[in-house]
């Protein structure tokens, strides 16, 4: 079972057919009808004026920050566990000269509003950067796929407006958040000035993200996309798969969230486990964090063992034997992510695998 990430999905037959038959044109000259179609659809979904197709989520976030921060030395407030802060090479600093001001993420992906307010710079002090952007992430990857409460997003937005700041949403897995909350995307994005959404995670398309905002923002974003090498000639071929992904969103989210709960409950059902622990109540979307209690067992050791099958294991588990690929998240935790290419049988066999490996480690420590 490949559960390292939801980017592992392969395009299905409907996507491949749509890609093969896609009407295309030169998007650098804004002549690709399929690109224009997906941009219009996403803008309408988010309740925003305009949208822009980009090759990746990292580029989408960087373009968004560049479009909002017109001057070098401006600052973005963002969570210290956010993907934008941890896993995108600090591109806003490297490329755009934008300074990060981290706030401490809580376990649920939110942060203290009071801390955020304290981090907003005074506008009359030439010694300090100028605060320009506040960024949120929904669902929150490093916090285990937690879904931001709408009330929290609204409160952050109110502070941003009061201080004449803009609110950007890293919505790489925004459709997971919508499904978990039972609301349309616009209920989340109406509080935001811009949003970036990935098509190639849980939605299952092979390539691409879409950013959205007002027309002025997208005009600036279009220029930044070009200088970053994101202008493409006939990208309607990949946008066609994105359109199918969006039409299948509810089905995919339902499948992924259900299997994540089944997996988490299966790990919990292993009982008084001396090796692993999990809090099922924190599994709100398709990401599962499993903590390792034994100090002599690291995440690297556990994930390596889960990918292997021993002779004794094959004899005991027979047809249920499985190689399980999950990712080490920290020294003492691993992350599993459900997606549409994982079946209920895969989950059942993965739980048996975790049970077998747990028993094996416990016997070795006797």
Structure notes:
With 366 residues, the protein is α/β, with parallel strands linked by helices. 43% of the residues lie in helices and 15% in strands. It is built from 15 helices and eleven strands. It has helices spanning 13-21, 33-46, 57-68, 83-86, 91-94, 113-119, 150-162, 174-181, 185-189, 215-227, 236-247, 249-268, 299-306, 311-317, 344-364; strands at residues 50-54, 74-79, 99-103, 130-137, 166-170, 194-198, 209-213, 276-277, 287-292, 327-330, 333-337. The strands form two sheets. It has a seven-stranded mixed beta sheet with strand order 1-7-6-5-4-2-3, with helices on both faces. A four-stranded antiparallel beta sheet has the order 8-9-11-10. Strand 10 and strand 11 (333-337) form a beta hairpin. Helix 1 (13-21) runs antiparallel to helix 11 and helix 8 (174-181) packs across helix 12 (249-268). The chain is globular, with a radius of gyration of 22 Å. The protein starts with 12 loop residues before the first helix and ends with a helix.
């Amino acid at each position: 079972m490949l559960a390292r990430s939801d980017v592992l999905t392969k395009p299905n037959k409907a996507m491949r057919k749509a890609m093969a038959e896609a009407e295309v044109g030169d998007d650098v000259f804004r002549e690709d009808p399929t690109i224009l179609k997906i941009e219009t659809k996403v803008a309408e979904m988010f309740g925003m004026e305009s949208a822009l197709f980009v090759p990746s989520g990292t580029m989408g976030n960087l373009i968004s920050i560049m479009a909002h921060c017109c001057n070098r030395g401006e600052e973005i407030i963002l969570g210290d566990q956010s993907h934008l802060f941890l896993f995108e090479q600090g591109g806003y600093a490297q490329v755009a000269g934008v300074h990060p001001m981290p706030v401490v993420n809580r376990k649920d992906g939110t942060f203290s509003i009071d801390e955020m307010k304290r981090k907003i710079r005074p506008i009359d002090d030439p010694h300090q950067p100028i605060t320009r952007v506040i960024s949120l992430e929904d669902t929150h990857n490093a916090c285990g796929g937690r879904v931001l409460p709408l009330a929290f997003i609204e409160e952050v937005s109110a502070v941003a407006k009061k201080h004449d700041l803009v609110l950007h949403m890293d919505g790489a897995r925004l459709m997971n958040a919508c499904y978990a909350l039972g609301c349309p995307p616009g209920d989340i994005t109406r509080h935001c000035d811009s949003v970036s959404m990935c098509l190639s995670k849980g939605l299952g398309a092979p390539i691409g993200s879409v950013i959205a905002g007002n027309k002025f923002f997208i005009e600036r974003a279009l220029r930044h996309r070009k200088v970053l090498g994101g202008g493409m000639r006939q990208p309607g071929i990949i946008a066609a798969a994105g359109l199918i992904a969006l039409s299948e969103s509810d089905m995919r989210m339902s499948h992924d969230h259900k299997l994540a709960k089944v997996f988490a409950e299966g790990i919990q059902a292993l009982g008084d486990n001396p090796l692993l622990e999990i809090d099922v109540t924190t599994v709100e979307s398709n990401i599962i964090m499993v903590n390792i209690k034994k100090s002599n067992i690291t995440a690297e050791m556990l994930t390596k063992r889960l990918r292997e099958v021993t002779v004794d294991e094959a004899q005991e588990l027979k047809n249920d034997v499985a190689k399980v690929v999950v990712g080490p998240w920290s020294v003492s935790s691993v992350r599993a992510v459900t997606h549409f290419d994982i079946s209920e049988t895969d989950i059942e066999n993965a739980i048996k695998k975790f049970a077998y490996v747990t028993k094996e480690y416990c016997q070795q420590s006797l």
